[in-house]
Amino acid sequence: MEIIKTVVGVLRNKNQEILISKRKKEQFMGGFWELPGGKIETGESLKQAIIRELKEELGIQVNQLTLHKTMMHKYEDRAVQLSIYNINEHQNTPLGIEGQAISWASVDELNNYKLLPTMKAFISSITLPNKYWITPSSNHQSDEWMGKFNQKLNSDITLLQLRSKIELDNSFIRELNNKCKKNNIKLLLNTINKTFNEPYCDGWHLTTTEMLKLSKRPCADNKLLGVSTHNLTEALKAQTMGADFVVISPVQTTKTHPDTISLGWDIAKEIVDKLNIPVYFLGGMALKDLEKTQQLGAQGIAGISAF
Ligand SMILES: Nc1nc2c([nH]c(=O)n2[C@H]2C[C@H](O)[C@@H](COP(=O)(O)OP(=O)(O)OP(=O)(O)O)O2)c(=O)[nH]1
Ligand SMILES: [Mg+2]
Questions:
Q1: Angle at 153 between CA 148 and CA 157, to 5 degrees
Q2: pLDDT of the residue at 272
């Protein structure tokens, strides 16, 4: 299948709204809203291409830009490799120079538009945090467990996975959820016997085994769904099933599993490059690894004792 190299730009106004553009009827995926941009021309670098595209489509002169992330998306008849740039500085007010409709939308408002399929993963990548805390999986009501949980409530953690290998009381989970809500933390359940309609959570986190049994997303679109995976095949399956993000592990060796072979940075990066949904690295991660992780294109790091 032909791979179409495409560059797109993220322009934000002072209200942090994002500029989207409507594809024209006669184009592939006509009528869908997208990030402005287009295909690379022969001999052009990615940066030259995005500067040219935004001049042609919006009439702006880009002065400063940084790569946000790259992703790959397969349509029925083509594969698109999308490089998404944050446009940090530009001249002129953007206009629909080619006659296309344009609109500024907040992240929440984006969901009211008929968006290209790549937009869902883009939205996840700008809304998910770069740290994902996983709770210890046993002794939940102990002082030690509650101590760790309470400490995270007052930290910069905004996404939390409640992990348990034994059944927990719903009243206990509700209590944790209330505490998370008060502290603007999203709570994902990785408990046994998930029903996917528990109201007291923001979503679910699936084990690999659970994911492999599913052919489609088991929960509503407005909930978050993460999946634990260990290689490219599993990660791609999770993406096809409809996961919002995956965790891959072990990226490095850990003290708890010293004999398990780790993926290593290179393979971890390969997985990130072949997915379009956000990827968190787990296993032997510490805060000092966050920068490298993001440079490799991952969303961030996950861990029980990483932070
Ligand atoms: N511009 C843009 N294209 C996207 C996005 N997501 C996505 O899959 N694509 C696909 C659709 C197209 O196959 C390709 C982009 O090409 P395009 O149609 O915008 O190309 P272009 O501006 O060079 O215009 P054209 O003259 O070739 O029609 O990438 C996106 O967010 N923005
Ligand atoms: Mg275009």
A1: 95
A2: 94
Number of the ligand 1 atom closest to the C-alpha atom of 78 = 13
Give the model's pLDDT for residue 260.
81
- 108 CA → ligand 1 middle, Å: 23
Cα of 10 vs centre of ligand 1, distance in Å, is 14
pTM, whole model, 2 decimals?
0.87
CATH architecture of 128-303: Alpha-Beta Barrel (3.20)
Q: Tokens standing for 288?
A: 């000092």
How much is the pLDDT for 1? 84
Nearest Cα neighbor of 304 from 106, 78, 133, 109 is 133
Confirm or reject CATH 3.90.79.10 for domain 3-115, answering yes or no.
yes
Domain boundaries, the chain: 3-115, 128-303
Distance 31 CA to ligand 2 centre (A): 13
Q: Which residues of the chain have pLDDT under 50?
A: none
What integer pLDDT is reported at residue 49 of this predicted model? 98
Q: Could you check whether 3-115 and 128-303 share the same CATH topology?
A: no
What integer pLDDT is reported at residue 254 of this predicted model?
81
Edge-first strand order for the sheet with 18-22 is: 33-34, 18-22, 102-105
Residue nearest atom 5 in ligand 1 by C-alpha distance: 34
User: Which tokens is 232 given?
Assistant: 């490219």
